[in-house]
């Protein structure tokens, strides 16, 4: 079991965060942004950055090479659609993507938008952790949480199909 700190400051204990979200044990902040046959997407629950999306497989697996052909096609299609929505409704020009296989959760890709303030904390991979920590520790104010919720609503609406 591990303890997860949610964006609202509450903590919850789960075996696998991704499974807990897919199974509805945890309601992601703002709800599910979009869901397909094999994936679902939600705002990251730990870091209040507008448009920061986690795309997770529904099946409990860890590595890219475990995806079936149908899952691979579903994955790249929905990843691209979310990216387009981030650009079209939130004006996000650049996104960092990463996923790691040595994780305690299962297969999930982070889509981390780049905002101007982030460049003060560096560029490229080494800036990601400072950016996330800054968001979690310094941006949990009501005005920012409101913009996070607005971004979730805008993406959810855009991705309805
Ligand atoms: Zn899982």
Automatic annotation (TrEMBL):
One of its GO terms (molecular function) is hydrolase activity. InterPro entries: HIT-like_sf. The keyword Hydrolase applies. Keywords: Hydrolase. Gene3D superfamilies: HIT-like. SUPFAM superfamilies: HIT-like (SSF54197). This is Diadenosine tetraphosphate hydrolase.
């Amino acid at each position: 079991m591990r303890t997860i700190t949610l964006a609202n400051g509450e903590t919850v204990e789960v075996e696998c965060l991704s499974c807990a979200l897919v199974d509805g044990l945890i309601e992601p902040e703002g709800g599910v942004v979009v869901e397909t046959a094999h994936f679902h997407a939600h705002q990251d629950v730990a870091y209040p950055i507008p448009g920061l999306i986690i795309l997770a497989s529904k099946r409990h697996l860890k590595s890219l090479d475990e995806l079936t052909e149908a899952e691979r096609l579903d994955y790249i299609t929905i990843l691209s659609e979310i990216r387009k929505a981030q650009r079209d409704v939130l004006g996000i020009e650049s996104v960092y993507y990463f996923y790691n296989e040595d994780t305690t959760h299962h297969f999930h890709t982070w889509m981390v938008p780049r905002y101007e303030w982030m460049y003060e904390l560096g560029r490229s991979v080494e800036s990601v952790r400072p950016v996330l920590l800054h968001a979690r520790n310094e941006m949990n104010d009501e005005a920012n949480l409101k913009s996070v919720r607005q971004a979730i609503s805008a993406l959810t609406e855009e991705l309805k199909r």
